[in-house]
Amino acid sequence: MALDELKSAVPDYAKDLRLNLGSVIGNSDLPQQQLWGTVLACAIASRSPRVLRELEPEAKANLSPEAYTAAKSAAAIMAMNNVFYRTRHLLSDPEYGTLRAGLRMNVIGNPGVEKVDFELWSLAVSAINGCGQCLDSHEQVLRKAGVDRETIQEAFKIAAVIQAVGTTLDAEAVLAE
Question: What is the secondary structure of 119-157 as a DSSP string?
Answer without folding.
Answer: HHHHHHHHHHHT-HHHHHHHHHHHHHTT--HHHHHHHHH
